[in-house]
Amino acid sequence: MAADNNVYSRPVRISSVRFEGIKNTSEQLLAVYSAPLLDTPSKMPFGHAAMLAHSQADTLFRLGIFKHVDVELDSQRVGDVDVVFKVAEVSRLYAKTGTELGNNEGSMTAAVKIRNAFGNAESFEANVSYGVETDAALYETKPFTSQLGSSFQFLFSKPWNGNPDKMLNVNAFKQNKSMSMYSSYSEQISGLAAKFKVLDLYLGATHELGYEGSWRRLFDLGSTASWTVRKDAGHSLKSALTYSAILDRRDDPILPTRGIYLRSLLFWILVVKEGAGLGGDVRHLKGDAEGQLSLPLGGGFSITTSLRSGILWTLGLRQSRVNDRFHLGGPTSVRGFLQNGIGPKDGNDIVGGDMFAAAGISLFAPLPYLADKPIKFHFFANAGNMIKLDDNRDIKAASRTLLSSFSTAVGLGLAVRFSILRLEINYCLPVSVTRTDSVKPGLQFGVGLHFA
């Protein structure tokens, strides 16, 4: 033990840094990782030098361009060490196909990615998705039919100055989606977006600042489309700044048993131009926040509580657009209600709201003989409400209205954790509803990555 301590405390100088196994990575990027080692004090304990070298190796690996990064400290001369990084680069070309499941929809996806494109850990990715969406409206009794939705995205990503904790993303996208399950229109969105993401190493939070410009078109209106939908039909151009912050300290993001999750998102819509040469514009602020706390109770039992709220505040005289509003309700949101089934309606159309609040509490219990498996009994109670702001936009009066009446439901079922998603099968009992709610008593299935 004394000999080991002597080795780690022996003063050394890092005399050189070498990289073995490099094929496509640029010297510029490698210099970002070698310079801090070469710029260290002339003498330091060997243990400190080893810690610095392994820290750089861990950061290199998180760039996602190496299969592995190993470190050797070679001491050929007394008092000097050479740091050797032995790496194996991943293949530049990566392609995959797969299927994705979500609420009321499934999709087939294909993606092609070029990694480390210019040698500085940049990547180019193109992906396309074709989805099958249920097409029958919620208020209709006929069986569900289906139709294809589609999306395309071209994404460029680059670590800022070679740092994987600071990422610049630029993407072009186009999306076609049918809203006919909830409302009488389809929407097409084409646009460009740029985002800068930073990981706060002190708190472990992720901050993201971005800009999005998109051309949106509401079309394919149904014969029973409401006035709310009809007046927003056609073209609009959105220009928006966005900011989001996420702190996730849960032990498992899919089915947590302990930890905290906080998320906030703010949109500042600089301008929305409507129509072709109509000259109108809409400005608004849109923000929402969510908090989730999971606590272990012992014996495989745990409890999770959640709170969510949001507001859409227009800065002009015009009311908010139907495709900018919030939606609430469904198997991953407020259980016991249909997807987007809580809040304002116009005729048969779910038109969304400008303010919402929701809360939930879930108790998870182990199954007999399956305590170590990712399947739990699930008991829940949840509540939510959503309203549309009137022309007066009295925030105090609106808050009182929002909090005066909640749609609530309780139930029990099973929660199953798969590798990338969670499945819930619940028996739901709506307890209190409003006249515009679309309820889902009885069995309800939910599939997703995030549950409230």
Automatic annotation (TrEMBL):
GO terms for biological process: protein insertion into mitochondrial outer membrane. Belongs to the SAM50/omp85 family. It is a multi-pass membrane protein. This is Bacterial surface antigen (D15) domain-containing protein. InterPro entries: Bac_surfAg_D15, D15-like. Its main location: mitochondrion. Residues 116-451 form the Bacterial surface antigen (D15) domain. The keyword Membrane applies. Keywords: Membrane, Transmembrane, Transmembrane beta strand. It is found in: Mitochondrion outer membrane. It comes from Chytriomyces confervae. One of its GO terms (cellular component) is mitochondrial outer membrane.
